[in-house]
Amino acid sequence: RVNVSSEKYFAQLRDSARDGIVISEVIVSRSSGKLIVVVARPARDGQGAFQGAALATLKIDEFENLFRTLDIGAGGNVALYRSDDFSRVVRWPPADGKMNQVLPPDSPTRAALANGARDATIDIRSAADGVARIYSYHVLERYPLFVSVGISHDDALATWRLRSLVVAALVILVLVTLAFVLQRFRQSERALASSQELLGSTLEIAPIGVTRSSLDRRFLLVNPKF
């Protein structure tokens, strides 16, 4: 038997008249010793008097195991935050080991949420590690939570850079091939001119008459002897 009456979420359920779901901050489970988040709802009698709470525990390491499977690049991160007080529930990879870390008041994400944007993409340079990332977040429908995923600029541009290198290599290969073809063409032109010059000299000194005529019997070429 574990007594949770002193937990903040339990006191909130007991002292509040509303019957909605309450989500706790990240706490250490008194039964397992693991980091958890409690999702709870009050139980009341027919007169509305508080009798206790129905609650479920969400293990932080389960979220970490899930987030670990996502392809967010070497410099990316994925996190779950509360949308009511902007405290962090879980982040992968872990940042500083602090529980319930709150987004800074000047955070662009907080500003976007304050303006009512339930989904947004924001370009931010992290104050924690100085990495420039493109963050996208999504607010859950029925719970005071939002998911945030950040991809670093380097990871986001890695594919584009690779394609650019491939295209550049192909362009260089085409240019080299074209230069080779042009060189061979010029060599062929010079060889043809040389052959024509040799042919002309040969015809000039030939001891017999040489001619070339068209199909309609017109002379196209004759040598002096002819």
What can you see in these coordinates?
With 226 residues, the chain is α+β, with helices and mostly antiparallel strands. 34% of the residues lie in helices and 29% in strands. Strands 6-5-9-8-7 form a five-stranded antiparallel sheet, sandwiched between helices. Strands 1, 2, 3 and 4 form a four-stranded antiparallel sheet that branches. It has a two-stranded antiparallel ribbon with strand order 10-11. The chain starts with 7 loop residues before the first helix and ends with a strand. The model has no long low-confidence stretch (mean pLDDT 87).
Descriptive labels:
5-stranded antiparallel sheet, 34% helix, 4-stranded antiparallel sheet, 11 strands, 29% strand, 4 helices, alpha+beta, 226 residues
Draw up the topology in text.
Elements: H1 8-15, E1 22-23, E2 27-28, E3 35-44, E4 50-59, H2 60-68, E5 77-82, E6 88-92, H3 108-114, E7 119-125, E8 132-139, E9 145-152, H4 153-205, E10 211-213, E11 219-222
Antiparallel strand pairs: 1-3, 2-3, 3-4, 5-6, 5-9, 7-8, 8-9, 10-11
Strand order of the largest sheet: 6-5-9-8-7
How much of the sequence lies in strands comes to 25-35%
Low-confidence stretches: none
- Structural category is alpha+beta
Mean pLDDT: 87
Oligomerization state of this entry? single chain
Q: What is the radius of gyration?
A: 40 Å
Describe the sheet with the most strands: 5 strands, antiparallel
Concise account of the structure shown:
With 226 residues, this protein is of the alpha+beta class. The chain is built from four helices and eleven strands; from the N terminus they run H-E-E-E-E-H-E-E-H-E-E-E-H-E-E. A hairpin with a 5-residue loop joins strand 3 (35-44) and strand 4.
